[in-house]
Amino acid sequence: MTRRILSVLLAVMLLLSCSPALADDGSAGASYYGSGSTLLSNLTHNCPNTGIMLPKTFSPYETTYLLTVANWVSRPTFTPVAMDPSSTITVNGQVVKSGGTSQAITMTDEPQAVTIRVTNVSGASTTYTIYLQRRPSEK
């Protein structure tokens, strides 16, 4: 009996972990891919040789990332690509064309958050947050 309950519980947890991300307004009404989507299909940064992003692989359904860069990096940028080309993308409130490079984010010695919001024509949106931090100096 205990094994059966555990099997059912694990199956439910697996199904829930595979469900698509919801828009910020809590709806799942818009299609997840293509027209009406509020998701990014890709997100890259300009620090591939010194930056370590966790999780390492971008997923449209993962909305929180940590990017740790070398202590000398001062102006990282991001290139977000929307699943729906008619979506509006903002990086820290400034509009960025899908596939275009964002404004440079001025790094400080303190950790900081970068907010990337994808909004479809209906007004639904998904927000991605990238936490930036510098590695300590090796001196």
Question: In short, what is this structure?
Answer:
By secondary structure, the protein is mostly beta strands. The chain has one helix spanning 2-17; strands at residues 40-45, 52-54, 64-69, 78-82, 88-91, 94-96, 112-119, 125-134.
Identify the notable features of this structure and list them briefly.
single chain; 139 residues; mainly beta; six-stranded mixed β-sheet; two-stranded antiparallel ribbon; 8 strands; 12% helix; disordered N terminus
Shape: elongated
Uncertain runs with pLDDT below 50, 5 residues or more? 2-32
What's the arrangement of strands in the largest beta sheet?
A: 2-3-8-7-5-6
Helicity level: 10-25%
Whole-angstrom Rg: 18 Å
Round the mean pLDDT to the nearest integer and report it.
82
Beta-strand segment tally: 8
Largest sheet: 6 strands, mixed
Helix/strand-derived category reads mainly beta
How would you spell out the order of helices and strands?
HEEEEEEEE
SS field, number of helical segments: 1
Distance between the termini: 60 Å
Strand content: 25-35%
Textual characterization of the structure:
The structure is a single chain. This protein has 139 residues and is mainly β. A hairpin with a 5-residue loop joins strand 7 (112-119) and strand 8 (125-134). The chain is elongated. The strands form 2 sheets. A 6-stranded mixed β-sheet has the order 2-3-8-7-5-6, with no helix packed on it. It has a two-stranded antiparallel ribbon with strand order 1-4. The longest helix has 16 residues, at 2-17. Helix content is 12%, strand content 32%. The protein starts with a helix and ends in a 5-residue tail after the last strand. The model is unreliable at 2-32 (pLDDT under 50).
